[in-house]
Amino acid sequence: MARIISGYGSLLLAAMGQTLLLALLGLVFASVLGMFFGLLSVVRNKACNVIAQIFVDVIRGVPLLVLAYFIFFGVPYAANNILHIPVTLSALQAGTICLALNCGAYMAEIIRAGIQSVDVGQMEAARSLGLPWWRAMQRVILPQAIRTMIPSIINQFIITLKDTSILSAIGFPELVNTAKNVVANTFMSFQTWGIVAVMYLIVITILSRVAKIVERRLSRGRER
Fold first, then answer.
1. Distance of CA 208 to the CA centre of its chain
2. Chain-wide mean pLDDT for the chain?
3. DSSP code of 140?
4. 45 has pLDDT over 60
5. Residues 91, 167: contact at Cβ < 8 Å?
6. How far apart are CA 156 and CA 61, in angstroms?
7. 3-state secondary structure (DSSP) of residue 118
8. Tell me, what's the pLDDT at 109?
């Protein structure tokens, strides 16, 4: 194990940095998608509700690995051979899109639930003061809803971080993919995967503690 840490420790740490970068990019774009489809699911428009539900059902119904292959291999193939548009995607681009879509579907449900957790009287009061629906949502409902969403969003980031390991299948140099190369060079499978497991455990434990601290503080804020 000491041989792996001394010889490949910096490489594994750099791979963990790539893993965190991919998870963070996926979460940022997922938040945009989640907010868009989350709002579509609560507006008083049947067509918008159906569109949001279709997005959530389709993305959540497709395994992440299949979605990754479809985006990395299928989309460029269709663009180049069917639409005759030259498209190439790097592993980082395909991985970010894949995580953004997958995480975005779950974020949409988190945001929908957060908005619906706010008392309906809040929206009625804002509308009675002359605020349009979108302005009332922006200034009154979302600030209250975000307080209940934050712990779930942090938990979703943890899930997304673990999901990055699947993207080793498309060649992205995240931690699992790098560990495979280390094992191929050293033939020390037990030690290498043990180190990788500890690295994931440390990062995810820290994030879990942060989520609990934030949740406790928000709970105290609501009690006041």
1. 15
2. 88
3. I
4. yes
5. yes
6. 17
7. coil
8. 93
User: Going by C-beta distance under 8 Å and a sequence separation of 6 or more, which residues neighbour residue 219?
Assistant: none
No. of helices (H) and no. of strands (E), the chain:
10, 0
What is Dmax (Cα atoms) for the chain? 70
What is the spatial distance between Cα 142 and Cα 164, in angstroms, rounded to a whole number?
A: 29
Q: 126: which 2 tokens?
A: 């804002």
**Residue type for 127, please?**
R
CB 107 within 8 A of CB 31: yes
Phi, psi for residue 157 in degrees, rounded to 5? -65, -40
Containing 77, the helix (H) or strand (E) segment is: helix 75-81
Q: How far apart are CA 168 and CA 95, in angstroms?
A: 9
Complete domains list, the chain, with CATH: 2-223 (1.10.3720.10)
Which tens digit of pLDDT belongs to each residue from 87-144? 888 999 999 999 999 999 999 999 999 998 888 888 888 888 888 888 888 888 888 8
CA distances for 162 relative to 77, 109, 133, 203, angstroms: 28, 20, 37, 10
Which pTM does this prediction carry?
0.87
pLDDT (average), residues 57-74? 93
